[in-house]
Amino acid sequence: MDRDQAKEILLRYRPGRDDMIDAEMRQALALVDRDTELARWFEQQQRADETIRARLRETPVPADLKQRILAEQKIVRVDFGWPKPVLFAAAAAVVVLSVIGLWVYRDRTGNGLSAYRTGMVQYVASGYSMFIKAGSFDELRQVLAQKSWPTDFSVPDSLRNVTVIGGGALQWNGHKVDLACMKADNRGLWLFVVEKAAIRNAPATVAPQIKTVDPMATAVWSQDGDTYLLVVQGDQQSLKKYLPGFGS
Predict the structure, then answer these.
(1) Does residue 80 contact residue 105 with C-beta atoms inside 8 Å?
(2) Is the pLDDT of residue 116 over 70?
(3) What is the C-alpha to C-alpha distance for residues 33 and 49, in angstroms, rounded to an integer?
(4) What are the strands, taking DSSP E only, across 44-102?
(5) One domain for residues 68 and 49
(6) Domain extent at residue 53
(7) Number of domains in the chain
């Protein structure tokens, strides 16, 4: 097992969850004891996880959250491959973090636009915990290139003045997804880019299709062979100022 393989396995590690420590996890933890650089990364990872857990504990959980999640699951069943943290409550905490890493999603119900949009919203709202540091779109492209991830995505002019705090290398049903994490006006913003062929019934044009996926406002459009999904921590009015053709 090399360092990169160990990192992917250690992303699943949760303190106090002995039921999640399998043979691979034990091997990865043993490598932490022998690898100084991996140990330093693992310590940073655990601190980021604890920050998210602390914010989750501080965030009031809506009384009807369980019913809302169950109602959503009747429409789209989303499986992240490991036990889910409480969905949605961590959205406010995300904007204080600065890095994101590899995350793999496999949708077992299909590859349509609705499932993709819902899956990405649930991802950013559920307290992701592995990060790539980046302070600009150019810096993000450099890191993505090092991971052999696409870098030719376009940034709408309406996003030029936001603060970039990180980005990610994700996968959706075997397709590579770029993620830019931003903040503006005390809101979290996330831009996902995937090749259009990866999404069944993806939009055909650059005209954004707006939809609220509780608790986030989202817009999706296609351009130059890619499909873009913008997720904003707020309502649709807050979203529009960051959309191509809407922003000032």
Answers:
(1) yes
(2) yes
(3) 20
(4) none
(5) no
(6) 3-57
(7) 2
3-state secondary structure of 119: helix
Do 111 and 39 fall into the same domain? Answer: no
What mean pLDDT do residues 239-246 have? 82
Q: CA 225, 176, 95 angle in degrees (round to 5)?
A: 100
pLDDT digits (tens, 9 = 90+) for 14-53: 777 666 678 888 888 899 899 998 898 888 877 766 766 6
Instruction: Output DSSP code: residue 197.
Output: G
Residue 86 tokens, joined = 């409480």
Distance CA 107, CA 159 (A): 29
Q: How many CA atoms lie within 13 A of 194 on its CB side?
A: 28
Q: What's residue 7's pLDDT? A: 80
**Shared-domain flag, residues 8 and 109:** no
More confident residue, 168 or 105: 168
Domain assignment of residue 245, yes or no? no
**59-68, 69-78, 142-151 — which is least confidently predicted?**
69-78
Expressed in percent and rounded to 5, the helix, strand and coil fractions of the chain are: 40, 20, 40
Residues 222 and 228 sit within 8 Å (Cβ to Cβ): yes
Residue type (1 letter), 202: A
Q: Does residue 134 lie within any of the structural domains?
A: yes
The residue that leads in pLDDT, 59 or 91, is 59
Q: Which residues, 6+ apart, have CB-to-CB distance to 210 below 8 Å? A: 217, 218, 219, 236, 239, 240, 243
Residue-level pLDDT at 232: 92
Q: Which two tokens stand for residue 62?
A: 């809506």
Instruction: For residues 42 and 83, state if they share a domain.
Output: no
